[in-house]
Every structure is written in C-alpha cells, then in structure tokens.
TrEMBL record:
It comes from Scophthalmus maximus. Its main location: nucleus. This is tRNA (cytosine(34)-C(5))-methyltransferase. Residues 1-24 are annotated as: Disordered. GO terms for cellular component: cytoplasm; extracellular region; nucleus. The lineage of its organism: Eukaryota, Metazoa, Chordata, Craniata, Vertebrata. GO terms for biological process: tRNA methylation. It comes from the Eukaryota. Keywords: Methyltransferase, Nucleus, RNA-binding, S-adenosyl-L-methionine, Transferase, tRNA processing, tRNA-binding. The active site is at residue 310. It is found in: Nucleus; Secreted, Extracellular exosome. Pfam families: Methyltr_RsmB-F (PF01189), Pre-PUA_NSUN2 (PF25376), PUA_NSUN2 (PF25378). It catalyses: cytidine(48) in tRNA + S-adenosyl-L-methionine = 5-methylcytidine(48) in tRNA + S-adenosyl-L-homocysteine + H(+); cytidine(50) in tRNA + S-adenosyl-L-methionine = 5-methylcytidine(50) in tRNA + S-adenosyl-L-homocysteine + H(+); cytidine(49) in tRNA + S-adenosyl-L-methionine = 5-methylcytidine(49) in tRNA + S-adenosyl-L-homocysteine + H(+); cytidine(34) in tRNA precursor + S-adenosyl-L-methionine = 5-methylcytidine(34) in tRNA precursor + S-adenosyl-L-homocysteine + H(+). PROSITE patterns: SAM_MT_RSMB_NOP.
Length: 709
C-alpha cells in the first residue's frame, strides 16, 4: 500500500480531512472533532431527536460550492440558459474514472432558478477538459459580475428583507459583500431605470475589509451604493435634506448580519473545529446586542430588519432577539416568514436554553450565576423568566437552518418589523436647540436611558455616545461638479446629452488639477454626501462614466465613455451611437482595430457619418429572432480614422461572446486536443487576437452550434 493510500485510510478512520473543499482551498490533517461542541449541542436539544449523528456527519462533510446568477442584470436569463443548455447538459452525461458526475442542482427555495450548488471538487475538475471549461466560465463570469460565488444560507437574509427599488437600505456589517451585492441587484430589479430611488449604505468596521466590499460592489456598476467605515454599534445618525428641511435619515430595510462565533461554518472553516469553545458566544453576545439595538434605532417605523448569524448558539441568536424585544416594549415584533421561501427546510426558534462555561458549568437562570462570573455572563443571555412575556415574543418565528437538512451550512435568521419608535426615543424627545446640538442632546438622553435601564434590569438599550474615530487610509475627497462647470460644455455638445441629464449627480475625486475620471451617483446619495461629509467616513461611491483621454481633445471632447457606467449613462446620450448586429459585435470583440469595412452595411453607414472619438455600440434585440440574445447590449468604443474598436474589459468580452453563441476557453499549456476533438472543431475555430485578450496565454474561440440564449 502506498504512502498516500495509507494516509487517506488513516484520515478516514480519525475524522481528518485532506480533500479539497468544493472549489475552495484544500485542508490537510485537521481532526474534525470537538467533544465540548458535541456535548453542548446534545444537551441543548436543538437538533431533532434521532438526527444528531446525521447532523454531526454533515458538519464533517465539505460544503457544496454554490453559485448565484446576478439577478438584476438583463443578461441573467441568457446566462441561466447558457448554463443549463451548454454546461449542465454535458456534465449530466459525463463519467470520470467510471463514476458518473452529479450535475449541479438548483436551490429549490431560491427564486427563478438563480442559485445552484454542486459537490464537484477541484480534483475532479482537473480531470476533465469539459469541467475545466465550466470552471473557467464560472471564474470569468464571476469577475465580470454576472455570477457570484456565495454560500447558500448566506443568500437568505436579503431575500427575507423583501427589497423594493425605492428602499433606503443599511447593511451594518457588510464585508466581504456577497449579501450587499444581492441588495444592489434587488434595487435594480428594473434595468430600464438607471437611477432607482433607493440606495444601499454598506458599512464595515474593518478598514481593509471595506476594500473587499468595494471590489464586490464595483462588479455591479451601480450608482446607488456607498461603502462607509464605522463601528456598527455606534454608526452615526445621518441627515438628509427633505423639501428644504434637514431631517434625520431612517432606513426602510436594515441587514444586521453580526460578527459571530461561526460554528455553523464548520464545513468550510475547518479551523473552527479546534478553536470552538462556549466562551466565544459569551464574549460576542454584548456586541451583537449593541449592533442590533443601533440597527432598530435607525430603522423607520414600518421598516424591516433582518438579524442573522452563522452560529447555532442560542446565546448569539434567540437571546439577542429576546433582549431586543423585551427592551422595545412592543415597538418591535418578529415577523412570520414561514411562507416566504417555499422549499426551504428550517427549524423554528427555541424559547428555552441553558448556558455553559468552557469549564463545563451549566446555568439555567441569571440567579444561579455566582458574582465572580457576572461580568462575563449577563442577564440578557438567558430566556425571559415571565412565561407570558416569553410566549408573546413568538421566538418560534426565528428560523434555524441545520446542515443535514438540505446540505448547507448552519444558520440563524430572524425578521423584525418596527411598529413604533423605540421607547427610549419617546422618553427623551429632542430638545429644540437646532442643528447638531439638537441631535447630540437627544442622543445623550437616549444613552442616559440605556445606562439607567441597564443598571436596573441588565437589558441593553441604545449604545453610549462615542466620538467618531477615523482609521485607515485617508480617502480622496468626493467633489460634485457645478452645473456650469466648463467640463460639461464639450461633453454636452459632443454626446448631445438630453436636457434631463442630472449634471449635479456627477462627481470627481480631486479639488485641484485636471479631472481624470468622472463618476455618477443617484440624487439620494448626493443628498447623503452633501449633508454628512463631516460625520461619516466614505470609502467609495459612484460608478465611473467618463475617463480623460488626451487624444480626444483634438476630436472635440477630452472625455471618453467608460464601460462601467455605460448602462447608467446611455439613456441620456443622443448622439455618437452606432446600432450593431450580432455579427458586428463578434468582429469588434475578437479583432483589434478592425477596419470600418468589416462592419455590416447598416453599422458601416452609421460609422462613416461620425467623426473620430468615443462612441456607444448598441445592440437592440429582435423578438422575431429568438436565436439571438433577447436583451440589450451596450459597449463603449472608439471610432478611429479608418477603423473602430471596443473598449471592453477582458472578462466582459468573454461574457458577451458567450451570449452570442461563442464559447471562449483557455487551453491547458502543452495539451493538444484529441483527433476526435479536432474533427468536431474543424472549420469552427478562430483564434482571438492576443493584443485584446492578452492576459490569457492560450485562448480559443469556438463557435457553438446553437447560441446559448
């Protein structure tokens, strides 16, 4: 028996794992056992009777890889069709080492088949050229923002928020940003509206993680997202100008996905097996409650807040919700979400639980806790003792997701609806001092209410007032252009912008010197920026719409269009537009600087009428020809003296080519196709020119027999 075989056998007998975790990283020699974890959850009885072994077995298995098709993109249906018809169909008939490969499955509870999961490991993917192409497709589409890699249970909170395009949304602990991306997609449900009324404020306390958040959000090219950097437990109250008056901003929807011990993530975060202890939850409970309290304070009456953790521990879950409901005195209620996601299997929240220290001591009630432990263990960690009050909370409306029920991670989620202002806001109405002083006094009053109440009954109210500290990099300023800024003179005439173009929503990142890039935000985010510049640390906002191009000045405009913002900007552009066909786009995306004569007659005639400079290349779908993409495609381009080119990033090129029935893949270095493959491809291959797609060393474009539309 070889060394590897002996090691594999040893791993299986000891519960060690040396396999790849889906498409993620491989882990070696980690013992998937924690006696304290098992005894704790056995004693609590959170897993249905007779299922505990299944629960533990599922926890030891690698987590399936899950993908979500970006729902707001008009291309979502095209991608789904391409996945199902091109890749999933082929995978169903695939065998590797005599074993049939299980094709990806749609998540039954996610709307419109927009989310899929698969158990394929990286090792399996490496063994098949077909799976390698599928993997490349996923990577490329992820980079261009059309697909997101996201754990299945992580998709739940945004769905339960029931987002509409006019909602003002706060994501309190947003990094790394997969849920934030979902929120943005839901705002842009109608792609014909470039500026939805709503917006997303995505916050994270960690300055470095905020840049992960920016990366995620930028893939979606939305003018309605702002990334800020604050401690969520004392995130500042923001102001907006409403009808000439200065009002406090209340959010319609808040996502409160708090930091947690993460014991629901054992399947992907293998380190948790050796690090897990009950102390983790005891240390985090106070912070989780402070963040949740700050969230409901900023929630509008009638609004919804989703509280979620990837922990199964009641100290982090129902205990926080119960404390929040008790302190709210009827201002909050748990919503019944049982019918919102048909197909999802979940367990109701619990209304009784105990607490255990890392030494194994159990406490069922605050009265049992010795004084020496009372700084670490707090009254809010226990269920309410008043049975009537406990029953009125309806903690069974909380949702617990167990890993063995639908092959997911563990998760907890609760939906709260605000019925009235929080009681401490009522008790301490604003003193008429005007401006900042008015709010400061009101907030001090609320903090005083919390301190007094906390001393009396141990229930946390609003967070104490803290001075805002700014850490991390000093960001460039956000400077809005005035309506008469000279930059607009040439832009207006060159692109013939419509009269309703919102000039005031255009900003740049410098006070002095030449403006390099111009960005656009929605008018609501402009309102936010102008009224809160001193109170919040903004990391990023706006979508790039124009970039300075010194060559352009001689042709009439120093700014060329940016692909990131073309879908936002194009509705306002009335000239410099060339309507193109499917064949034109194929030429533009696979050739560098093709001559104008390479375009079909209709596009060629339009191009000849335009002078040199930046252009929009627009494909309009033809409903009578279903073999072609049935969604609009808009590309930035440049009309040269005798040629034309598309200014589109690499992965977006791949995306559009696939939509047009062209398969783009990267050959493995040195690997030649088999004779059978050569025969099947003869006459169909066309090499993509390296100057355009230079980041891939070996690229083939194979025209598919039927377009993936």
């Amino acid at each position: 028996m070889g060394k590897r075989s002996r090691q594999r056998q040893k791993n299986q007998s000891t519960g060690r794992d040396s396999r790849d975790n889906g498409w993620g990283n491989g882990y070696a020699d980690i013992v998937k056992e924690n006696k304290l974890f098992e005894s704790y959850y056995k004693e609590l009885g959170l897993v249905p009777e007779g299922e505990f072994e299944q629960f533990m077995d599922a926890m030891r298995e690698p987590l399936p890889a899950t993908i979500r098709i970006t729902g707001y993109k008009s291309h979502a249906k095209e991608i789904l069709h391409c996945l199902k018809e091109k890749y999933f169909k082929d995978i169903q008939e695939l065998e590797i080492d005599g074993q049939k490969i299980e094709a990806p499955q749609a998540l039954s509870w996610y709307p419109d088949e927009q989310a899929w999961h698969t158990n394929m490991s990286r090792k399996i993917i490496r063994k098949s050229p077909l799976l390698e192409k599928f993997h490349q497709f996923l990577v490329s589409e992820t980079e261009s923002g059309n697909i997101s890699r996201q754990e299945a249970v992580s998709m739940l909170p945004p769905l339960l928020l029931k987002i509409e395009p006019h909602h003002k949304i706060l994501d309190m602990c947003a990094a790394p940003g997969s849920k934030t991306a979902q929120l943005i997609e839901m705002l842009h449900a109608d792609m014909d509206v470039p500026f939805p009324e709503g917006f997303v404020i995505a916050n994270d306390v960690d300055n470095k993680r905020c840049y992960l958040l920016v990366h995620q959000a930028k893939r979606l090219n939305s003018p309605c997202i702002m990334v800020v950097n604050h401690d969520a437990s004392c995130i500042p109250t923001l102001h907006i100008n409403s009808g000439g008056k200065r009002d406090v901003l209340f959010y319609d929807r808040i996502l409160c996905d708090v930091p947690c011990s993460g014991d629901g993530t054992l399947r992907k975060n293998i380190d948790v097996w050796k690090k897990w202890t009950t102390s983790n939850s005891l240390h985090l409970h106070g912070l989780q409650l402070r963040i949740a309290v700050r969230g409901v304070e900023q929630l509008a009456v009638g609004g919804r807040m989703v509280y979620s953790t990837c922990s199964l521990n009641p100290i982090e879950d129902e205990a926080v919700i119960a404390a929040l409901l008790e302190k709210s005195e009827g201002a909050l209620e748990l919503a019944d979400s049982s019918a919102d996601l048909p197909g999802l299997k979940w367990m109701p929240g619990v209304s009784s639980w105990k607490l255990m220290t890392k030494e194994g001591m159990w406490y069922s009630d605050w009265s049992e806790v010795p004084s020496s432990r009372q700084t670490q263990i707090r009254p809010t960690m226990f269920p309410p003792t008043d049975s009537e009050k406990l029953a009125s909370m309806h903690l069974e409306r909380c949702m617990r997701i167990l890993p063995h029920h639908q092959n997911t991670g563990g998760f907890f989620v609760a939906v709260l609806v605000k019925k009235a202002p929080m009681p401490w806001n009522k008790r301490f109405p604003k003193v008429k001092l005007g401006g900042e002083a008015e709010e400061e006094e009101a907030f001090k009053g609320a903090s005083l209410a919390q301190e007094t109440a906390a001393k009396q009954d141990g229930v946390c109210g609003p967070p104490p007032l803290k001075k805002m500290k700014l850490f991390g990099y000093k960001e460039d300023p956000f400077v809005f252009l005035t309506e008469d800024d000279p930059v607009f003179t040439t832009i207006q005439s060159f692109y013939d912008l419509s009269p309703d173009f919102p000039k005031l929503n255009v900003l740049t990142r410098t006070h002095e010197g030449k403006k390099r890039h111009l960005y656009m935000v929605s008018k609501e985010l402009r309102n936010m920026l102008l009224n809160n510049s001193e109170r919040m640390k903004v990391i990023n906002t706006g979508v790039k719409v124009w970039s300075r191009n010194s060559d352009g000045e001689e042709f009439g405009c120093a700014f060329r269009l940016a692909q990131e913002g073309i879908y936002t900007l194009q509705p306002y552009i009335r000239s410099r537009i060339i309507t193109v066909s499917v064949e034109d786009i194929k030429v533009l995306l696979t050739q560098e600087n093709p001559f104008l004569s390479k375009l079909q007659d209709h596009a060629h005639a339009q191009a000849k009428k335009l002078g040199m400079g930046s252009i929009v290349l627009k494909y309009i779908p033809n409903p009578s020809n279903p073999a072609e993409p049935q969604c609009s495609i808009q590309l930035c381009g440049w009309r040269g003296k005798t040629s034309i080119r598309a200014f589109v990033p690499r992965n977006e090129r791949f995306h559009y080519l696939r939509m047009l029935g062209v398969e783009v893949f990267k050959d493995k270095q040195g690997q030649k196709p088999s004779d059978g493959e050569k025969e099947g491809k003869e006459g169909e291959e066309a090499e993509v020119q390296k100057p355009i797609l230079g980041l891939l060393k070996y690229v083939n474009v194979v025209h598919a027999r039927s377009p993936c539309v």
